[in-house]
From TrEMBL:
Residue span(s) of domain Protein kinase: 59-325
Species: Anisodus tanguticus
Name of the protein in question: non-specific serine/threonine protein kinase
Enzyme class: transferase
Assigned GO CC terms: plasma membrane
A Pfam family that the UniProt record links to this protein: TPR_BSK1_C
InterPro entries referenced in this protein's UniProt entry, alphabetically: BSK, Kinase-like_dom_sf, Prot_kinase_dom, Ser-Thr/Tyr_kinase_cat_dom, TPR-like_helical_dom_sf, TPR_BSK1_C
Length: 491
């Protein structure tokens, strides 16, 4: 399933035009003069995404709560050199594979420069993954709440509000008005510093439209009654985003509305702005936020109305987004991931058949130089029995009779007259083939003890660790194996 990675042509959006608040490009219909057209929705294979993310390595996690998040987002590099964001759902999510695929394809049909667009998905076995454009310049939460060098400028805050409203309007026009858990972590900045709405929130979690990841302090009143997200609920969440932009903090709507009612706007506005905005602009944004946060859903404005209101108060429209954001254009490209060898890729995929072929092909050449206590026992009956057990084990290994191979290799090791890291590696693979991952790990570690700079010892150790669910440790073993193999190839 899926298209070979080398054929997946991703054309990232790079705008050389000065931003105009009055229009944006619909990439689905050709973008600017037919440029920047993204590829159609693709079904990726799990192997391709595992390689792209280094086996879902912890170092590649970019989602808010890291490994503790119920659904983790990773950065990944496809074989053709394009970066993607890969969202991996937990095993209990989306039990219906057809529902997941249908929902992903529906979201994947959207193409807009205001979205971090969904490029594809993967649905193999219990795995449910989404693949989207990678946005290299962090989230709105980072730039608004956790900034390092400078607070976000007022003109940029207004641009974020407009672009978000335009994203919402586009989705509404395409029949995808529902967005789950809209917050400052869902707004991402692309290579040009332009804000985009993550496509992941457009995926509903079930057919009844319920959302399972909502902070109750910021939920629309009707959600508390019905547990459902509607298009009006999304507008309410947009109102909370306007409060974020005004205050530079994530404050509950009830508290903000209390300040607005008593006309204490000074307490509401971000003190870091230091008069960077006019009172009229601030008042207009407060007015819009208040309209979005109306208790009655029918009294809230629609997305088109929000766009029209926000267009009129835009500032510094000739200034490029990356300048307003205070970043260098094209920065924040992630470091190059580990380049795996054929053996490494087989380990990452846990392709035991491929590993069996590799071990069989390499034979015992890596045992050369291993010290063995043979002395005068070499020609004794004990030695002959040991060699016979090795010979029988190798025959069983070739025939893929893994239980017999385990028995024969165990006799060889118990003989005590010879030490062979290859025997331990082969028995390790036999254990893996027989779903005995713990025993396999023991053999892999023993092979490492015998030959501490042997790449194969670390490779098979990584597979055993992957099988035991110890992904971080497996990644470290895989990195060490790759490093040792690269070192060996230079000598």
């Amino acid at each position: 399933m899926g298209v070979p990675c080398s054929k997946f042509s991703l054309c990232c959006f790079h705008s050389n035009l000065k931003p105009s608040p009055h229009d944006f490009f619909d990439l689905e219909n050709g973008g600017e003069n037919g440029k920047n057209v993204l590829p159609s929705f693709t079904e990726f294979s799990l192997d391709v995404l595992m390689i792209a993310t280094d086996g879902f390595a912890a170092d590649n996690i970019v989602s808010e709560h890291g490994e503790k998040a119920p659904n983790v987002v990773y950065k990944g590099l496809l074989e053709n050199g394009h970066w993607v964001a890969v969202k991996r759902f937990n095993r209990s999510a989306w039990p219906d594979s057809r529902q997941f695929l249908d929902e992903a394809k529906a979201v994947g049909n959207l193409r807009s420069e205001r979205l971090a667009n969904l490029l594809g998905c993967c649905c193999e076995g219990e795995q449910r993954l989404l693949v989207a454009e990678f946005m290299p310049n962090e989230t709105l939460a980072k730039h608004l709440f956790h900034w390092d060098s400078q607070p976000m400028k007022w003109a940029m805050r207004l641009r974020v509000a407009l672009y978000l409203a335009q994203a919402m309007e586009y989705c509404c026009n395409k029949g995808r008005a529902i967005y789950h858990d809209l917050n400052a972590y869902r707004i991402l900045f692309d290579q040009d510093g332009n804000p985009r709405l993550s496509c992941f929130g457009l995926m509903k979690n079930s057919r009844d439209g319920k959302s399972y990841s909502t902070n109750l302090a910021f939920t629309p009143p009707e959600y508390m009654r019905t547990g459902r997200v509607t298009s009006e609920s999304v507008v309410y969440s947009f109102g909370t985003m306007l409060l974020d932009l005004l205050s530079g903090k994530h404050i509950p709507p009830s508290h903000a509305l209390d300040l607005i009612r008593v006309k204490n706007l000074t307490m509401l506005m971000d003190s870091c702005l230091e008069g960077d905005f006019s009172n009229d602009d601030g008042t207009e944004l407060v007015r819009l936020a208040t309209r979005c946060l109306q208790y009655e859903a029918r009294e809230r404005p629609n997305a088109k109305s929000l766009v029209n209101s926000l267009i009129t108060i835009q500032k510094e429209t000739e200034v490029l987004s990356h300048v307003l954001l205070g970043i260098k254009h094209g920065t924040a490209t992630p470091p190059q991931p580990l380049v795996l060898t054929t053996t490494g890729e087989a380990c990452l995929r846990r392709d035991l058949t491929a590993l069996h072929e590799i071990l069989q092909k390499t034979g015992y050449k890596d045992d050369e130089g291993i010290a063995n206590e043979l002395s005068f026992q070499m020609w004794t009956n004990q030695m002959q029995e040991t060699l016979n057990s090795k010979k029988q084990g190798d025959a069983a290994f070739r025939a893929k009779d893994f239980m017999t191979a385990i028995e024969c290799y165990t006799q060889f090791n118990d003989g005590g007259t010879m030490v062979s890291p290859t025997i331990y590696a082969r028995r390790c693979l036999c254990y893996l083939m027989s779903d005995m991952a713990q025993e396999a790990l023991g053999d892999a570690m023993q092979a490492q003890v015998i030959s501490s700079e042997w790449p194969t010892a670390f490779y098979i150790q990584s597979v055993a660790l992957f099988s035991l669910g110890m992904e971080n440790d497996a990644q470290e073993a895989l990195k060490e194996a790759t490093k040792l193999e690269a070192k060996r190839s230079k000598t």
